[in-house]
Amino acid sequence: MHRLSHTPVWADKAARRYSEEYARAHEIFHEALAAGCDSPWLLHLRATLYNHSERYRAFSGPLSKVDRDLDREHREIAEATLARDSERAVKLMNQHLQMTTKVILDSVLAGREPAPDSAKAKPGEAHLPESLPRKRGAPA
Q1: Measured CA distances, 43 to 32, 36, 48 (Å)
Q2: What is the DSSP annotation of 70-110?
Q3: Which domain holds residue 19?
Q4: Of 68, 71, 23, which is closest to residue 50 (Cα–Cα)?
Q5: 116 in a domain, yes or no?
Q6: Secondary structure class of 62 (helix, strand, coil)
Q7: Is residue 118 part of a domain?
Q8: 56 in a structural domain
Q9: Were both Cys, which of 12, 83, 100, 114 would link to 17 (CB 3.0–4.6 Å)?
Q10: For the whole model, what pTM was predicted?
Q11: What does DSSP say about strands 17-18 and 10-12: parallel, antiparallel, or unpaired?
C-alpha cells in the first residue's frame, strides 16, 4: 500500500496516461491482497483475469470522465484486509472492481450506437455500429 500511495498515477495527466510505475505498484498491491490464498489454481486465475483487465484499464484512462479517489479506495481495502474484516474487504473490493468495470465499459462504449432492437434483427444477421470498420466489399 505504501508504494502504491506514493507513486504518481499519471505519466501524462493531461492525456490521462497511466505511469508504468503506478501500473506495477497497482499490480503488486492486488497481488498482496490475494497472497494469503493457498490455491495455485485460484492465484493463476486471479492473475490471468487481472492481466486481461489491465489491457482495458490502460486504454480507458484517456477516455474516462470519472475522477476517482483511487488512494482512498485502495487504502480502505487494505485497512479492511489488515483488520481481517473480510465482509468489509469483500464489499470494498467489489465496489472497486465494479467502478473500474463501469469506467472501462463507459469508455469503450462512448460514442457507439445503441444495440439494435432484437425484434428487428433477422436470425444470423449481424448489426455493426457505423463507427466500427467493416470488411472491404461488405454491404453497408
Answers
A1: 11, 10, 9
A2: HHHHHHHHHHHHHTT-HHHHHHHHHHHHHHHHHHHHHHHHT
A3: 2-109
A4: 23
A5: no
A6: helix
A7: no
A8: yes
A9: 12
A10: 0.68
A11: antiparallel
Cell numbers 432484437 correspond to 118
Instruction: Give pLDDT tens digits for 36-66.
Output: 999 999 999 999 999 988 887 776 666 666 7
- For 104, residues 6+ apart whose C-beta sits below 8 A from its C-beta are 53, 56, 57, 60
**Are the CB atoms for 127 and 121 separated by under 8 Å?**
yes
- 3-state secondary structure at position 11: strand
Instruction: Supply φ then ψ for residue 18, to 5 degrees.
Output: -65, 140
Beta bridge partners of 10: 18
pLDDT in tens, 81-137: 999 999 999 999 999 988 888 887 887 777 555 444 434 444 444 443 444 444 555
CA dist 35 and 47 (Å) reads 11
Residues 6+ apart with CB under 8 A from 70: 9
Is residue 4 a contact partner of residue 28, using CB atoms and an 8 Å limit? yes
49 residue type, one letter: L
Cell numbers placing 94: 467489489
CB 71 within 8 A of CB 114: no
Counting the structural domains of the chain, the total is: 1
